[in-house]
């Protein structure tokens, strides 16, 4: 079996590539390396069943060529992160809409099964505890940068749905809720790796807003097997499925957990959203998924706790630091 993975050098994509190769798949990866890193694939760079291509999902011809012969297509490539969306809004919209169209159309033409990674951002400011896939989206103004990513992903989902209903494309949409783990960088706004880096450096942990915002974090190694399982699940075809953890934590609590786990002397420093992101940014108080559908479809049940997630991110960053030291 051949699998095509977009965003293969990214945080989630690299773990997915490793899992597919371990299961005996032939894998072709595509990444423009704008946020992905080749070192994420260091463990499989020389694998005889893996081919990595540097390029963009906006290159329609390239996407069609790489999709040819693939039975499975995992579309993870996207412009992500609050800072990327803020600073490169037009480029992000093009990537997330036109790029996705290229991948969806290529998968349809090849008769492949398609999984498209979407996001919990879809739900916007809906603060219901236990968001279900059919719950309403509550969004702010489209003129505020905070919501352009959610709007683009909503277009992606509608596009996939239309191809599934009108052309019979075998596709599933996965809405990811704060997937975290080794190889994730805090450079683009992801909170746990950012907190860990600050704590290891003895810097203040920067908490935006009140810090009472509630989030749930899920380990990438719990998510990746579910991605593969959902793509093979006929009952998942044409559906959107939440993947995440139900363990709730405030950002303030998270900061204290990271300080304790690292043994850092860092303090917590607050910053306004205006200072961090500039005008036009809004946040939501709570985002908690209901993953009943994923559990019913593929038995999804996160096994790793938040403390284990934090420990793995710490280990990953410490290993990266030791590697830099050894090279110098």
Q: What does this protein look like?
A:
- The protein contains 11 helices and 15 strands.
- The protein has 328 residues and is α/β, with parallel strands linked by helices.
- The chain has a domain at 2-180 and 219-244 and 289-303: NAD(P)-binding Rossmann-like Domain (Rossmann fold, 3-Layer(aba) Sandwich).
- The chain has a 7-stranded parallel sheet with strand order 3-2-1-4-5-7-12, sandwiched between helices. The protein has a two-stranded parallel ribbon with strand order 6-15.
- Helix 1 packs across helix 7 (220-232) and helix 6 runs parallel beside helix 8.
- The chain is globular, with a radius of gyration of 19 Å.
- It starts with a strand and ends with a helix.
- The relative contact order is 0.13.
Give the strand order of the largest sheet, numbering strands 1, 2, ... along the chain. 3-2-1-4-5-7-12
Strand content: 15-25%
Average pLDDT across residues?
92
Assembly type of the shown chains? Answer: single chain
Question: What would the CATH topology of the domain at 2-180 and 219-244 and 289-303 be?
Answer: Rossmann fold
> What composes the largest sheet?
7 strands, parallel
* Spatial extent as radius of gyration: 19 Å
Low-confidence stretches: none
> N-to-C terminal Cα separation, in Å?
42 Å
Question: Going by CATH, what is the homologous superfamily of the domain at 2-180 and 219-244 and 289-303?
Answer: NAD(P)-binding Rossmann-like Domain
The total of helices stands at 11
CATH architecture of the domain at 2-180 and 219-244 and 289-303: 3-Layer(aba) Sandwich
Structural class: alpha/beta
């Amino acid at each position: 079996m051949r699998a095509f993975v977009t965003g293969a050098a990214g945080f989630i994509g690299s773990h997915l590539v490793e899992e597919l190769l371990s299961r005996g798949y032939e894998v072709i990866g595509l990444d423009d390396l704008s946020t992905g890193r080749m070192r994420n694939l260091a463990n499989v760079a020389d694998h005889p069943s893996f081919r990595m291509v540097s390029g963009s999902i906006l290159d329609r011809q390239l996407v069609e060529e790489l999709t040819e012969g693939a039975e499975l297509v995992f579309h993870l490539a996207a412009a992500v992160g609050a800072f990327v969306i803020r600073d490169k809004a037009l480029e992000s919209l093009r990537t997330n809409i036109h790029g996705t169209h290229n991948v969806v159309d290529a998968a349809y033409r090849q008769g492949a099964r398609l999984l498209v990674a979407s996001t919990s951002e879809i739900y916007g400011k809906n603060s219901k505890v236990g968001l279900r896939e059919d719950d309403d989206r509550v969004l702010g103004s489209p003129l505020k940068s905070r919501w352009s990513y959610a709007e683009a992903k909503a277009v992606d989902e509608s596009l996939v749905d239309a191809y599934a209903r009108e052309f019979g494309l075998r596709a599933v949409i996965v809405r990811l809720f704060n997937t975290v783990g080794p190889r994730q960088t805090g450079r683009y706004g992801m909170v746990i790796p950012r907190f860990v880096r600050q704590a290891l450096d003895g810097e203040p942990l920067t908490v935006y807003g009140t810090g009472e915002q509630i989030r749930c974090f899920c380990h990438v190694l719990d998510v990746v097997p579910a991605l593969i399982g959902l793509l093979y699940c006929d009952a998942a075809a044409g559906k959107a499925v939440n993947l995440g953890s139900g363990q709730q934590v405030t950002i303030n609590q998270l900061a204290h957990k990271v300080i304790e786990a690292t043994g850092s002397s860092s303090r917590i420093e607050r910053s306004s959203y205006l200072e961090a992101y500039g005008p036009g940014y809004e946040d939501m108080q709570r985002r908690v998924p209901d993953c009943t559908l994923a559990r019913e479809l593929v038995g999804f049940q996160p096994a790793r706790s938040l403390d284990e997630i934090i420990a793995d991110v710490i280990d990953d960053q410490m290993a990266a630091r030791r590697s830099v030291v050894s090279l110098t």
